[in-house]
Amino acid sequence: MTMIARNMLFEPGAPLRGTVSVPGDKSISHRSLMLSALAVGESRVSGLLEGEDVLATAGAMRALGAQIERSADGVWHIHGVGVGSLVQPTTALDMGNSGTSTRLLMGLLASHALTATFIGDASLSKRPMGRVTAPLGLMGAQFMTSPGERLPLTMRGIVPAVPIEYRLPVASAQVKSAVLLAGLNAPGITRVIEPVPTRDHSERMLKGFGVDLRVETETDGTRIISVRGEAELRPQTLVVPGDPSSAAFPIVAALITPGSDVTVTNVGMNPTRTGIFRMLQAMGADLTITNEREVGGEPVADLVARHSTLTGIDVPPDIAPSMIDEFPIFFVAAAHAQGITRTSGLDELRVKESDRLALMAHGLARIGASVEEREDGLIITGHGGDPLGGGNSAPTIAAELDHRIAMSFAIAGLNTRGGLIIDDMSPVATSFPGFVELLSGLRGAA
Ligand code: S3P
């Protein structure tokens, strides 16, 4: 990904009003391309997120032998090569900013007899890969990593890979998916034991592609996911719903900006993703879920958010996986609530595209919010709906190549006296192309 420095000022102005839709779900988009590349024949995908992260996956799948084209009507056509038939890439796979592309592809390649090198940007090169090299190593893949099990790394997959039973030491859909994808080309049953449920798009989609995958749920909520290897995937026609993680930005913007009334249509409502909406409602948000339906095997709805008086809450740590990417924008909502919001169990936020606990604590404090940073969460005493800020000049917030930090502070800026400057908005293109235009459209529509 080419990074272009792009300062941008966000300041109070008109309320947000109108109806918008957000780009396709990032998790489902990555998986659509990967699984289609493993099916023999042509799959079609509409609603694909055309952001840099997903384009990195598309580039990698092409380098591994799939044919991928976008037709004029925005539909993506993927001609897959079949499980076990990915080809040796001739150059390093550049994953840009995308942890999901990297970890899922490492899984896919672990059970193919080829060697691949993964590179990425400065943010991705700091992120831990030991969480996937450990189980994939047990399956027989070999890795040569940079210090700390980081990128750049070179891996050598193996055929036949050893099917394993693996208990996830960290609640991570990426690790779960990496092992399941490796299992697709291993003889026998590969099993993942998931003590805390995480997003289940891989499970739903693998079944949709015709893979023999079973999920058992134990009485304590532990999930055991078993996939039968040497699988044959059938090509599919897929529709990607709007990304709830992206929808959270205009929704929180509407909730905290006086006079706002925003509808976001076609939002994915998979319960493993919607913790943010449940927590906002628990804070008293005027957030209505309408027109609930199913699209492409995923629940979808339209969401209506109006300016609200929010009240601080204690967020139960077990809800974290279902809103793991939404904490940055949730913290912004908490800073505008009445009273105290406490979060805990969020150690994973320190190893996302940035250390999100540190950056959010630091940035919110700079615009006058009252924040206490703990090792595994933030405690925020809200301003009760009054705008934050009030210093002499608009502070500059460093997004550190983290799209969600950039977007969260952009929304905060709309409610910060004198506004704030984001040092570089370009990372937003990884997950939410059109974010700035969508915000200005909603303000212009007032
Ligand atoms: C994702 C899983 C989550 C999430 C990421 C997308 C996925 O990561 O933060 O944005 O598509 O599987 P972890 O598995 O590291 O929690």
Q: How many individual domains? A: 2
- The N- to C-terminal Cα distance equals 35 Å
Number of strands: 24
Helix count, per DSSP? 12
* CA gyration radius, whole angstroms: 21 Å
Bound molecules: shikimate-3-phosphate
User: What fraction of the residues are assigned to beta strands by DSSP?
Assistant: 25-35%
The coarse overall form would be globular
**Contiguous runs where pLDDT drops below 50 for at least 5 residues:** 1-5
Oligomeric description of these chains: single chain
Q: Which CATH C-level class of the largest domain is it?
A: Alpha Beta
- Share of helical residues: 25-40%
Question: Which homologous superfamily in CATH is the superfamily of the largest domain?
Answer: Enolpyruvate transferase domain
**CATH topology description of the largest domain:** UDP-n-acetylglucosamine1-carboxyvinyl-transferase, Chain
| Secondary structural class | alpha/beta
Tell me what you see in this structure.
Helix content is 28%, strand content 26%. The chain is of the alpha/beta class and 446 residues long. The chain has two domains: 2-24 and 241-444, UDP-n-acetylglucosamine1-carboxyvinyl-transferase, Chain (Alpha-beta prism); 26-239, UDP-n-acetylglucosamine1-carboxyvinyl-transferase, Chain (Alpha-beta prism). The protein has a four-stranded mixed beta sheet with strand order 2-15-17-16. A four-stranded mixed beta sheet has the order 4-5-3-14, covered by helices on one side. Strands 6-7-9-8 form a four-stranded mixed beta sheet. Helix 2 (52-63) runs parallel beside helix 3 and helix 9 packs parallel to helix 10. The longest helix has 13 residues, at 26-38. The protein is globular. 54% of the residues are buried. Mean pLDDT is 96; it is low at 1-5. Bound molecules: shikimate-3-phosphate. The site of shikimate-3-phosphate (S3P) has 10 residues, from helix 5.
